[in-house]
Structure formats: C-alpha cells, structure tokens
Design a protein that fits this description.
Layout (H helix, E strand, L loop, with lengths): L2 E7 L6 H8 L7 E7 L6 H5 L5 E4 L5 H11 L4 E5 L9 H6 L7 E5 L2 E3 L4 H22 L14 E5 H6 L12 H9 L4 E4 L5 E3 L2 H6 L1 H14 L3
Parallel strand pairs: 1-2, 1-4, 2-3, 5-8, 6-9
Antiparallel strand pairs: 4-7, 5-7
C-alpha cells in the first residue's frame, strides 16, 4: 500500500527540518510526503522545499483545513497524519500499515511520547495513552455503544477510501476535538485499532506554554463533547 504522509505546518521553521528528516527515513517502501504550509509567515515553506517532498499552500488557518488540503493532493491508499514537531521512528509506517491487512480496519492510531518533557511527565502521558486510550477505544466500539473510537491526531493512519466516503475532514473544527470527530465519522465504515506499541515521539511544548491542567482539561472536555 502506498501511504500519503500529510504534515500541516503553521510557523514551524524550528521543527520542520528535523521532522522531515525522520519522515524520509521510513523503511516502508512506498510513501509520499505532503507538507501543507498553513498560512505561515516564517521560513517554514522555504525549509520544507529543500526536501524531496510536495509542498502545498492552504491560506485558511486551521489544522483541518490543512489536513483536508493535503488529503485532496494525496495519491496514497492510506492517509497518515503527523504534526510538524513529530519524530516518527524508521519503522513507524511499517508497524502501522500491517493493521490494514484486515479489510475491516478503517483507521489506526497509537500513543504520543513527549520527548521534551521531564521523565515523570513523559512516562505518565505514555502510560495514560497506552492504558486509557486503548481501553476507551475498545469501549467506544462496543455494539451497544457505537461512539467511534480513539484517534491521536498526530499519530493516525486512515484508509483514503474511507476518508472519501466521509467527504473529508470537518473543517468547521479549529483544533480541539478534531481527532474525536474524525474517529466517530470513520467508524461508520470500519473498525479503529489503537496500537500501544505504535509510539510517536512529539513535542510537549503546548503543555509548557499553556500549562498541564489547562491542556488536560481542554482535551478531556473536547474528547467527550465532540461525541454529542
């Protein structure tokens, strides 16, 4: 299967080069990389164009505007979403793609590893993702509940054919709740696998900038409110 890796980027000149180096080192034999320059006013686009990838512009600011723009330019069988500060290990794609051998699988996700937070925070969040998210993914897909599943926005792979059936991403969502919304919509066309070993290193800068309690509260509220 060919994979289209889509990376939204708004003013990411400090991160994008390192991310692209990691992405281009994937051991999966067939993939393309699409960076969506999402109304940046720094050197993000200039830096991205130095790599053998596709760079497209989306002037409307918002992560789902960017992801939808990237999806429309994608040619792969699988859409892979990561963020501009992620550092996927070389086997990330090959680990994720094996789940799609089951034709019933619509999407796959895994936990974050916040590489720039302290030791305690790193392991707390990783275990939370691995235990809570996996459990919630199972519960939400029970036949008598049917409320989608769990996708971690910057660590997600989805069948392109399924995204086409959903008519793309809901661009009315600015940020919080976007992964929950997408999970609920794609679950109508297949199951969602949450693989605790499909770990994505990413920056915890948002926690540093806005505070642990504030960010945790926003994620918690939007995780459930997006299911209404």
């Amino acid at each position: 299967m060919k994979v289209s890796i889509i990376i939204p980027a708004n003013n990411e000149e400090g991160f994008i080069a390192r991310t692209l180096e990691a992405v281009l080192a994937q051991d999966h034999p067939s993939f393309e990389v699409i960076v969506v320059n999402n109304n940046s006013n720094d050197r993000t686009k200039e830096i991205a164009r130095q790599f053998p990838i596709t760079v497209v512009d989306e002037p409307r600011k918002g992560i789902l505007y960017a992801r939808e723009c990237g999806r429309q330019h994608a040619t792969g069988d699988i859409i892979a979403n990561i963020d501009a500060d992620c550092l996927p290990p070389p086997d990330w794609l090959s680990r994720g793609i094996v789940h799609f051998a089951d034709e019933r699988v619509a999407g796959v996700s895994g936990p974050y590893w916040y590489y720039d937070l302290g030791f305690v925070a790193q392991h707390f969040f990783l275990l939370t993702f691995q235990i809570f998210s996996r459990l919630m993914n199972t519960v939400l897909q029970l036949s008598f509940i049917k409320q989608g599943g769990v996708l971690v926005g910057g660590n997600t792979l989805i069948r392109a054919s399924v995204m086409e059936k959903t008519h793309g991403y809901d661009t009315s969502i600015e940020f919080y709740g976007e992964d929950t919304n997408t999970a609920k919509r794609i679950s109508k066309f297949g199951t969602i696998h949450f693989d605790p070993r499909l770990i994505m290193p990413t920056s915890g800068r948002r926690f540093v900038r806005e505070g642990f309690l504030t960010i945790s509260y926003k994620y918690f509220i939007n995780f459930f409110s997006a299911r209404k």
